[in-house]
Amino acid sequence: MTDHEQMHGPHLILPSVPKDHHPSSGATTVNVDSMAHEMGHGAGADLSSMVRDMRNRFVVALGFSVPIFALSPMGFDAIRVPVPFGLRLDLVLFLLASGAILYPVWPFVVAAWRAARNGIANMAVLVVLSVGTGYLFSVGSTFLWGGQQFYEASSLLLVFVLLGHWLEMRARAGASEAISALMNLAPAQATVLRGDREVEVTTAEVQAGDVVVIRPGNKLPVDGTILEGSALIDESMLTGESMPVARTPGDTVIGASINKSGAFRYRATKVGADTALAQIVKLVREAQNSKAPAQLLADRAAQWLVLAAVATALLTFAVWYGWLGQSLLFAVGLSITVLVIACPDALGLATPMAIMVGTGLGAMNGILFKNASALEDATKLTVVVFDKTGTLTMGKPEVVDLAPASGESEDRLLAYAASIDAGSDHPLAQAILRRAEAVDAPKAADFLNIDGKGASAVVEGRTVLLGNKLLMTENGIDLTELGPRSEALQGAGRTVVHLAVDGRLLGLIAIADAVRPSSVAAVRALKARGVKVVMLTGDNQGTAERIAKTMGIDRVFANVLPGDKAGKIRELQAQGERVGMVGDGVNDAPALTQADVGFAIGAGTDVAMESADIVLMKSDPFDVVGAIELSRATLRKMHQNLWWAVGYNVLAFPLAAGVLYPFKILLSPEIAALAMSGSSAVVAINALMLKRTRLTGIGPKGAPAAGSDAAGAARASAIIGS
Predict the structure, then answer these.
(1) Torsion angle, alpha carbons of 520, 522, 528, 534, to 10
(2) CA spacing 20 to 30 A to 676: which of 170, 253, 285, 506?
(3) What confidence tens digit (pLDDT) does each residue in 570-617 have?
(4) Where is average pLDDT lowest: 449-463, 617-631, 634-648?
(5) Are 242 and 390 in contact (CB under 8 A)?
């Protein structure tokens, strides 16, 4: 990054990683100019630094305002503190108010100037008018014409405004690190053949056509095709699929995947920006850049409030001074009172207070909202798309069915299988061992691993074979008895493990990715709230429809390749739908960012969580319901607060303008500031009441317990494949 870009660049540049560490090059950018411009910061400002700056200004304003309130407590004379050392009260208040206002208010002055140049009336304009006019008039009263002063009102107004903006920025800030996390998946080094010897080079130096050498535990640097050897490769960081896949000569392998067992050599076919990982990076970047931030409700309301406040203040001055003939100081004092009472502190707190309470309540329930707009956008969803593996399902293989041969028992089938699998770290073996925990398994001897087919061993003096259909066929095992059952299980998407003892088939073990206990309940609850549910999977159409039917899902996208997921989201959006996407794998990242709201399962990859707007830490799909319910409740509070803030000003304007003066009722600046503070308190209390609201999926009585829809879950798990 050049010095010019650092000082004047229009984008925030994410932390870079050495070029040789990445499968692709180029800066990852997140546009933050709109927020920096709105908040009065310079172009290219870092979001976290803007949050710190607003916090520091709030602390400074609060520190100076406390003694101001003690010296001039807005009518609370019982707590008034005398001026020390016999100093003039107005001079002491001038010094303190200057410290409380001049530095803290500066971003609003800059933002108001920018807005005025663009012909926009935003909240910053009203902040500057109300705080600035009160302060400048008070300075004039102190040193020129004498009379009323507004130091305490102006200082406290700014404290409330700064608090609201600080909370708002905390809720909105946080640049995504998804792309840098994606890039870090690729290994820094690779071993390639140069002539007849192995040479270690940086990943960036690997060229198309190079022969790459991979050993157990190695990460693959680039995409390619296996030349010799075989292996079990964990592609979960890219595909989200839980089980390692067997790869043999001629098969394609993906860069950034991990070799779990076996050694092989493969020819690099796609390097640099052409790798699958680099393409996913590109898709995430495109989705991020095309996703416009939601416009906060307070900004829309402030447009009208600014115009109303200025118009009312000018009208007040014109009526009292020009028409009714009151003194200049009287007319100016009432005009400033209008601006003071119209200060948008309640409006400024209306949305961030509700957002902070809502996000805090979500965090207590394992639902993390990563930005303020996600709360608003989640209320508008019309469709929720679930990636099947790892979201509706556990993402971990489990034994879902046992088919012993005639005259055999399930316990005997499990005992022999567990004997062979003892000590294995293979995902399928681990699934069998978990199912066989309550079974006594004898010790196996003469264990032999048969690559790509299974294993054999001697158990209690008998030869035991455990593996796929090919292993059985090669050893002359008769599969006739359980053949139809095996075909039915495989047709339903299960992985079928065969077990034979002394040349006779003992039974079948069906393994699949088990459905999450709350998936069926989540689908039902979403549909009850008028939200359509779509399942997205790489399974074939027939298998996908059978799985979806058992969960109550009416629409599926089947045969979807990893790179096509974002396209399916765009397809729904083109139909006018507001789409939520629930996923857990790296290949879900583009779809999560493309969706109007992305939900990441907490047990998924870091990249998926970074790309999403909402993270479900409990990995419970029913939390999607809780997130939508909480979002709707929070938006209701935001609307209530905004209506209160606007309604308060509608009533307060006439009072501040002196319409009741003929009845000897006139608001002083102190009372105006007190009314403003009371309005803010109402907004804050109303937001806090959200914690007492009963919401489905939120709180101890919200979500159904795991397995509350056990029957539906059992039906679904009966046919779900991995």
Answers:
(1) -80
(2) 170
(3) 999 999 999 999 988 677 888 998 999 999 886 555 666 677 888 887
(4) 634-648
(5) yes
Phi and psi at residue 560, in whole multiples of 5°? -90, 120
The single residue of 387, 421, 596, 620 carrying the catalytic annotation is: 387
Specify the fold of 182-289.
2.70.150
Spatial distance between the Cα atoms of 453 and 110, rounded to a whole number of angstroms: 70
CATH code of domain 396-514:
3.40.1110.10
CA–CA separation, 187 vs 277, rounded Å? 12
pLDDT in tens, 144-200: 888 778 888 889 888 888 887 786 566 544 333 445 566 677 898 999 998 888 999
Cβ–Cβ under 8 Å, residues 498 and 479: yes
| DSSP letter (8 states) at residue 482 | T
Tokens of 121: 């009336």
Is pTM beyond 0.90 here? no
Q: What count of other Cβ atoms lies within 10 Å of the Cβ of residue 107?
A: 22
Active site residue 623: no
Over the stretch 380-391, which tens digit does the pLDDT of each residue have?
A: 999 999 988 778
Structure tokens at 657: 């303008």
- CA dist 679 → 73, 81, 344, 642, 692 (Å): 18, 26, 10, 11, 21
Beta bridge partners of 223: 270
* 384 and 308 Cβ atoms separated by less than 8 Å: no
Indicate the pLDDT class of residue 673, thresholds 50, 70 and 90.
low
**CA 424 to CA 362: how far, in whole Å?**
40
Could you tell me if 31 and 49 are in contact, meaning their C-beta atoms sit under 8 angstroms apart? no
Number of CB atoms found within 10 A of residue 679's CB: 25
